[in-house]
Amino acid sequence: MRNYIGISIMTVVVITVLSNIGIRYYFIDYIQKQYAKSDKEIISYVNNSIETDGLLDQRELSYLRQQARFKNVEVLLRDTDQEIIFNSSMGMGMNSGKGHHMARNIYRDDYTYATQSIFYEDEVIGYLEIGHSKSVIDSKADNDFIYAINVLYAVSFMIAVIVAVILSILFSKRLTRPIIAIKNSTHHIAKGHYDNVKHVHTDTLEVHALATSIQELARQLNEQEQLRKRLSNDISHELRSPIAVLRSQIEAIMDGVLEPTHERLSKLHDEILRMTKLINDLNELVVVESENLPLHMERVHIKDILNPVLDNFVPLMDSKQITLHRDLDSPLTIMGDKDRLKQIFTNLLTNAYKYTNEGGQVWVQLCQENDKAMIRFKDSGIGIKEEELPYVFQRFYRSDDSRSRKTGGAGIGLSIVKELVKVHEGMITVDSQLKKGSVFTIQFPLIK
Ligand code: ADP
């Protein structure tokens, strides 16, 4: 509010000062031009009158006096001895004689004079002096004019202050109300209540953008919070039951209740491996998501990386009678980290393998589309529900808890893939139909 008033006062003060300066400057300039014009008229009148007979008669002198009074100037005529022979401010009488009784210096202190020589037949016969008031703006009318303008400024100054006060009260109410609402929302969020963050209505674009960002922040925090809760649930569930099994089995073996058969020990070993994988996956995710993931970027032929990974999967796919098709004719080059690319392909193929039933099919295709390398991993597997598709790349997201638990995943593989594709400046998308199969498509920018 103080700002509004301050700006209005400043504006009016600046305008007042500038216009006063402007008026004085241009007014003086204008008046001086006017003076020069009227001087010229007097000079040419005198010259013209002299030209005819070498002197100024009474009629001409009285015209000169009249003009001087009319133009508010003093006109003096001197002869060649510098004697005053005519003074427009004096009575007619003084012009009849030679004027020798007059003081040489009769100049008025408050006037400035300009002298012109008067010629007759190429000889100087006297001098014409025209005096103007020193202060150009000295007339009451001029000063009244400036005063009136300043009064107008003072009035507008007061109006501006009143308008500024009214506007600032209105505006600050309109501005502060949503900001207070936003502040309350942030307090709400700070206390950990991410839901129910109210939508703030405002016409101010910036405040609206702020309110929307805060709402989005609350939504994301809420999502993260849900994921975190889900993660702790999942991890404790994933770890608690196998550890309980391990513990009871080992205690039973130690107590001599159970025989330490090879089959029993092998099951316990599998559980330990599964838990180790979960811990490793979590560890890997933390590394991949960290800002300074070490990368060794180089020119890579995608085919050279993809083919050996596919070769490694052949025995696994065979064990489930899954047919693995590959269509990798295009020799495409990108900038990438070989090990990280292998990790991307391995995770996607592991999913294709895990979520495809026995006797199914998996296709891997590499081709060029515009200036991108496209790699498609397609399977005839169990598919993903349409409403779950937006979440599959989120950390710890498993489209179906019970199903994933059976397959042993913790919902980390695709988050790692997404992060790694991102550091390669690529993009990954998914398309899927429940019970029909899924297609994961990666695009990487090609290099020449
Ligand atoms: P997980 O270790 O559980 O497989 P991912 O992050 O790799 O974790 O995948 C997340 C979820 O996405 C999986 O739990 C699964 O439900 C679904 N999903 C991933 N790939 C496929 C696929 N090829 N077919 C069907 N569902 C898939």
Automatic annotation (TrEMBL):
SMART domains in alphabetical order: HATPase_c (SM00387), HisKA (SM00388)
Uppermost EC category: transferase
This protein's UniProt keywords: Coiled coil, Kinase, Membrane, Phosphoprotein, Transferase, Transmembrane, Transmembrane helix, Two-component regulatory system
GO terms of biological process kind: cellular response to phosphate starvation
The name this protein goes by in its record: histidine kinase
Recorded catalytic activity of this chain's protein: ATP + protein L-histidine = ADP + protein N-phospho-L-histidine
Residues of the HAMP domain: 173-226
Subcellular location: Membrane
EC number: 2.7.13.3
GO molecular function: phosphoprotein phosphatase activity; phosphorelay sensor kinase activity
Coiled-coil residue windows: 207-234
Lineage, highest ranks first: Bacteria, Bacillati, Bacillota, Clostridia, Lachnospirales
UniProt source species: Vallitalea pronyensis
All residue ranges annotated as the Histidine kinase domain in the record: 234-448
Residue ranges crossing the lipid bilayer per the database entry: 6-27, 145-171
GO-annotated cellular components: plasma membrane
InterPro entries found in the cross-reference section: BphY/WalK/GraS-like (IPR050351), HAMP_dom (IPR003660), HATPase_C_sf (IPR036890), HATPase_dom (IPR003594), His_kinase_dom (IPR005467), HisK_dim/P_dom (IPR003661), HisK_dim/P_sf (IPR036097), Sig_transdc_His_kin-like_C (IPR004358)
Phosphoprotein among keywords: yes
